[in-house]
Amino acid sequence: MEKVRETGFKHALLNAVKYNGKADLKAVTSKIIGELPEIRSVLREYIDVIRSIVEEVNKLPLEKQREIVRSNWPELLEEKKEVREKELPPLPNAVEGAVVTRFAPNPDYTIHLGNARPALLSYWYASMYKGRMVLRFEDTDPRTKSPYPEAYQMIKQDLEWLGVKWSEEYVQSLRIPLFYEVAKKLIEKGGAYVDKCGEKEFKAWRKEGKACPHRDLPVEAQLEEFDKMLSGHYGEGEAVVRVKTDLQHPDPSVRDWVAFRIIDTSKTPHPVVGERYIVWPTYNFAAGVDDHLMGVTHILRAKEHVSNTVKQKYLYDHMGWKYPETIHFGRLSLEGVILSKSKMRKMIKESGVEAYSDPRLGTLSGLRRRGITRECLWRIIKDVGIKPVDAKISYANLSAINRVIVDPVANRYMAVEDPVQVILEDVPEDIEASIPVHPSRKTYYTYRLGREAVVYVSSKDLPGSGNGLFRLMGVGNFQVTGASLVNGKPVVTARLHSRDQEEARKHGLQIIQWVKDDEKIPLELLIPEGMRLVRKTLLAEKRILGEKEGSVIQLYRIGFARIERIWEESAVAIYAHD
After folding, report:
1. Hey, which residues does 413 pair with through a beta bridge?
2. Which pLDDT belongs to residue 81?
3. Directed axis angle between helix 219-231 and helix 176-188, to 10°?
4. Residue 538 three-state SS
5. What is the Cα–Cα distance from 542 to 271, expressed in whole angstroms?
6. Angstrom distance (rounded) from CA 363 to CA 113
7. Alpha helix locations (H) across 169-305?
8. Predicted pLDDT at 76
9. Which end of the chain is more exposed for a tag (fewer CB within 10 A), N or C?
10. Residue 578: enclosing H or E segment and its boundaries?
11. Sheet harboring 520-529: ordered strands across?
12. Mean of the pLDDT values across residues 22-44?
C-alpha cells in the first residue's frame, strides 16, 4: 500500500503540474499501473486510495504542487522533449561518389569542441555523398607550433570516440620531398621566387605595393637559389620562397605570401623526422598542394581561413589547378571552458592542470571525462551546421542536451554530503526500504533496516527546528528524539513516526536521501568549477561498486556524474551537470 501511495502522489503531482493544477484520476491510475503492473489485477483495492490522493493534490495551489515536485523529483519537473537533429544542407557542386573531404589537424595538441565541428561535418558530408574523408596531420612547423609526439595518436583516439571514420591518413612531415618538387615546378612556371630581403625591408616594399629586388630575377637564378636553401647555404631568416600574387591586393598579408622558410631543426628537432630538413613549407603551401594531390573536392573550415583561401587560389592559378569548393563557417565556442590550445598549454605549465583530458578543459577527452556523450556533441554540431555566424554554446545548454541522452540509462544512487549519523530507534523488523533503480524502470532494490538501524544523512537535510520530523526516501517519516556528540562528531537519534505519504504531505516534509551504515562507501566527487577543481568526499551506497568505469550515474539531488575509478571499497566520479 505504501508503494502505491508514494507512486500515486508522484504521478498525481506531475499530472497536475502538467495540466494547470488539476490531476486526472484516469491518467494518474494509468501511470501507477505502468510503474507498478503487479497491482493491475487488484486495482479495485487501491482505487479509493488513488482517488483520495488525486483529490488532495488538486486542493493544493499550482505553485505548491511545483514546489513539491521540484524538491523531490526535480528531474521529472520538465517534460522531456524529443530532440530532432537537423538535416545538413547539400554541398555545392557535389557529385555522389566523387566527394572528397578532409580533416587536417595540427598535432600541436589534442582536439577540442571547436575542432570537432570540421571533423564531424567533413565525415558526415563524405558519408552523405558516398565519398571519402582524408585525415591529414599538418605538422610542418617544428618551431612555433611544434607537434606533440603523443598528439598524433591521441587525435585519432578522440576521432574514433567521436565516431569519425577516415579513408586515408597522411602526415605532411613525411611528404617534404614532394613539396620541394612542386615548389620547383612553381618556380619554373614563374609563380614563385626566392626572397633574400630582410623582414623589415620586405614589409616596406609590401606596404608600398612594390616588388622586392629578387622578384623578377630569371627562373634559372631562382632555381639555383632554392637549391642553395635546400643545401643549407642560408640560415634562418636569410631567405624565403614567396608565391607571386597581386602586389596591390587590399589585404597586405596576401601580397607575395611566404611558401617556404628555413628552420634550424638542430635547435627544434621535429618529433617525426628529426633534423632531416631545414626548409619547411608554410601552412598555406602544404595545405594547398595536398588538397590538390589528394583530390579534395570540398573544404569545410572556419571563416578565419578566408584569407588563406584567397592566398591558396594564387598558387592554384599558377599551377593550373581547380580550387576545391570551400565552405567557411563561424567559430564554435563553449562558455566558461577554455578552447584555445595555446592557453591550455600555458595552463599546464603554470597551473598544474592535467594535460589533454583535464575535466576543466574543452578538449574532447576532457568533456568525455565529465560524462558528456558524443551524441550530445553530434546534436550541437548538427544544430549549428555550416552557418557563417559564430555560435556560442553555454554549458547549461550542453548539459540540457546531454541530460536527455543520459537520463534514460543512468542508474540512480543515494549519496550524502557532510554526513551525520542517525540511529533509527524501535524500527519494526519487517520494515524494508524500497528504492527505485530508475524512475522509469519497474525495478527496485531493498534494504532491511532492523530494530536499531544506523544511517547517514546530509547535515543540511536534518530539521533544525520545529517538530523534528523528516522523511527518509522509500522508508517512512521519522522524528528526532535526541542529539549528542560522540568522539567530537554529531549523532542524532530518531524514532519512526509514521509511514504514510499523507502524513509527510500534511507536515510538508522533504524526502531526503540516506545511506545505510553497513552499505556505505566513500565516493570522491570531482567538480569542475571554471578553472577550479573542487574535491568533495561523499558517503554513497555500496552498490555503486557494481558500475563500470566510464558509466554515467545520477546521484539523487546532486546531479549526473561519470564513474572515473572503482576501487575495492571506494570510488571516484567526476561531476557532469545537474
Report:
1. 555
2. 43
3. 160
4. strand
5. 47
6. 6
7. 176-188, 199-208, 219-231, 283-293
8. 62
9. N
10. none
11. 412-413, 552-555, 559-566, 571-577, 520-529, 532-541, 415-416
12. 81
Domain total in the chain: 2
> Residue 374 is inside which H or E element, if any?
helix 374-384
Q: Is the C-alpha dihedral spanning 54, 58, 59, 60 positive or negative?
A: positive
Contact 412, 436 (CB under 8 A): yes
Give me the torsion for CA of 304, 306, 308, 311, rounded to 10°: -160
d(CA 43, CA 448): 27
* The domain boundary residue, chosen from 42, 73, 104: 73
Assign 177 a pLDDT band (cuts: 50, 70, 90): very high
Q: Residue 14: which domain range?
A: 1-73
Cα-atom radius of gyration of the chain, to the nearest Å?
33
Per-residue pLDDT at 441 = 73
The enclosing domain of 544 has a CATH number of: 2.40.240.10
Q: Which residue has the cell 557542386?
A: 93
Of 57, 73, 89, the residue that ends a domain is 73
pLDDT for 352? 63
Q: Answer for the pair 337, 395: CB distance below 8 angstroms, yes or no.
A: yes
HEC states along 90-156?
Answer: CCCCCCCCCCEEEECCCCCCCCEHHHHHHHHHHHHHHHHCCCEEEEEECCCCCCCCCCCCCHHHHHH
Beta bridge partners, 279, equal: 262
d(CA 546, CA 50): 36
Find the distance separating the first CA and the last CA of the chain, reported in whole Å. 32
Tell me the pLDDT tens digit for each residue of 278-337: 999 999 999 999 999 999 999 999 999 999 999 999 999 999 999 999 999 998 888 877
pLDDT at 210 over 90: yes
* 132-137/168-171 β-pairing: parallel
Distance of CA 221 to the CA centre of its chain: 54
Q: Where are the beta strands (DSSP E) in 298-390?
A: 298-302, 325-329, 332-334
Average per-residue pLDDT for the chain: 90
* Burial profile 405-423: b = 16 or more Cβ within 10 angstroms, e = fewer: bbbeebbbbbbbbebbebb
- β-pairing, 571-577 with 520-529? parallel
Please answer whether residues 509 and 462 qualify as being in contact, where contact means their C-beta atoms are separated by less than 8 angstroms.
Answer: no
Question: Residue 130 corresponds to which amino acid?
Answer: K
- Residue in this structure with the C-alpha cell 552523405, named with its chain if needed: 128
| Within a domain: 178 | no
What HEC string does 50-63 produce? Answer: HHHHHHHHHHCCHH
Whether residue 436 is contained in a domain is answered as yes
Is there a domain that residue 259 lies in? no
12-22 burial, b at 16+ Cβ within 10 Å, e below that, comes to bbbbbbeeebe
Q: How far is CA 546 from CA 368, 541, 563, in A?
A: 21, 10, 11
Predicted model pTM: 0.80
- Residue 275: count of CB within 10 angstroms of its CB: 13
**Is 510 inside a domain boundary?**
yes
